[in-house]
Amino acid sequence: MFEQQIINGLTLGSVYALIALGYTMVYGIIQLINFAHGEIYMIGAFAGVTMVTMLGQGFFVSITVAMLVCMVLGVVLERVAYRPLRKSTRLAALISAIGASIFLQNAMMLWKGPQPVGFPQVINDAIYHIGPIEVSKVQLIILATSAILMAVLNYIIKYVKIGKAMRAASQDYDTASLMGININRVISFTFAIGSALAAAAGVLVGMYFNSVAPLMGVMAGLKAFCAAVLGGIGSIPGAMLGGIFLGVAETMGIAAGFSTYKDAIAFTLLIIVLLFKPTGLLGKPIQRKV
Amino acid sequence: MLMEVNDLHVSYGAIRALTGISCTLDKGEIVALIGANGAGKTTTLRTISGLIKPAKGSITFKNMDLTKMPPHKIVAAGISQVPEGRRVFPDMSVMENLEMGAYTRKDKGEIKESLNNVFKRFPRLEERKHQLAGTLSGGEQQMLAMGRALMSKPEVMLLDEPSMGLAPMLVKEIFEIIRDINKTGTTIMLVEQNAHMALSIADRAYVLETGEVVLSGQAKELANNEQVRKAYLGED
């Protein structure tokens, strides 16, 4: 049973990780907790559902379109809700983020109604047996898609020019612009990438649980935020690790009989980890700027 | 005249940092801005680089008004800066730091050529090209910051306190390198608290006090000026 729970936990955890990456990347560059990120994930899920139900598309096209839609949405969100407040206090931008979050939830409820919408089966529910473990095809697709997306992200951050610029900007914002890096473009790019990953997570979750809802981003967003902080906010490997860690812990908790408290597990873990490692698992000690 | 700073006023909230700085930079020169802490030297450089927008005044560089341009366009126009405290990207390798310096350039061959020039000038950077910049010593970080600024192939290089926190031997070495960079065709504006070193390599200098230019002239003359000797060269 233990191995089975690990697989289930990895599935859930890789989705948390995809969402957590967006929080951590944005925080890394502009020190903003993008509280509307959960809503981007939700809108990604709805974009996926729309592609499947209204346009009859399969998994690949649906997830790609959802990612593209949310890329644009993320960039627009930053332009409208955060950029005008760049020079204000951090609290102002945070309040704007909460406002954007509430706005997007309600806009979606206005359009689709508050009830959950079914996500039709796009992948047949074949189940594979590997020894004692059962893995469904959907789980495999979630694991593979997440792994591919994270590998691509890793490649961009490590080797592509704009990815390196992201790292430079997150280490030293002013100096990055002294290199000739267009910071606004880097920020837009960061929002685009983070939002695309969240959209992918939304489609994967919709497919996994066969339903999407306008408020689905609230708890998922909060938990992914916990995962990002748990791993060390601002750290990309930290967000991946934090997400996986949280997913596995939550699944284990449910298996141990605490399913009523499953949502509390993330927050309990967060408190415990932060007590011992205030900057998160892979977070660095806070750097003094000389 | 390559660059002209005219009547620059900068405030941080209610604090007035610059109250009418004017200075010029001719092609091929080394110009030093000297003065005590808080005189406005760093603010002047940061305003030239576009990190701070002035309340009043203009900075003209080859018919462009830099005060209306964002920092990345100013770099592309040919002005790069070695910031105070070196500010290398600590979690990036030496090589990646240098690549960031060439961010505005496209031609891979030319970038490679600049990289070779930087390595020729600073062989230690080549030895440590895969090392994280945060693990370098202070002197090496200063060299990296200078190499990084050279990677944009600048016409003008702004240097902010290159001697800060370095051992006297290294300070001498860094200043020799600055002189050499200037000889190979880069115009230099240098901000220093170490007035003695600055005046020894500069052609001209401006003395700043509380946001204003109080004295200016040939570096040699200033080095012999009674007032400068007392206030900045520690002689009585």
Structure in a nutshell:
The complex is a heterodimer of chains A (290) and B (236). Chain A has 290 residues and is mainly alpha-helical.
Report on this structure:
The complex is a heterodimer of chains A (about 290) and B (about 240). Chain A has helices spanning about 1-30, 35-55, 60-80, 90-110, 135-160, 160-170, 175-180, 185-210, 215-230, 235-255, 260-275; strands at about 115-120, 125-130, 135, 210. Chain A has about 290 residues and is mostly helical. Chain A has one domain (about 1-275): ABC transporter involved in vitamin B12 uptake, BtuC (Orthogonal Bundle). Chain A has a two-stranded antiparallel sheet. In chain A, strands 2-3 form a two-stranded antiparallel sheet. In chain A, helix 2 (about 35-55) crosses helix 9 (about 215-230). The longest helix of chain A is centred in the first third of the chain and has 29 residues, at about 1-30. Chain A starts with a helix and ends in a 14-residue tail after the last helix. Chain B has about 240 residues and is an alpha/beta fold. Chain B folds into two domains: about 1-80 and about 155-235, Rossmann fold (3-Layer(aba) Sandwich); about 90-155, no CATH class. Chain B contains ten helices and ten strands. In chain B, helix 3 runs parallel beside helix 6. The radius of gyration of chain B is 17 Å and the shape is globular.
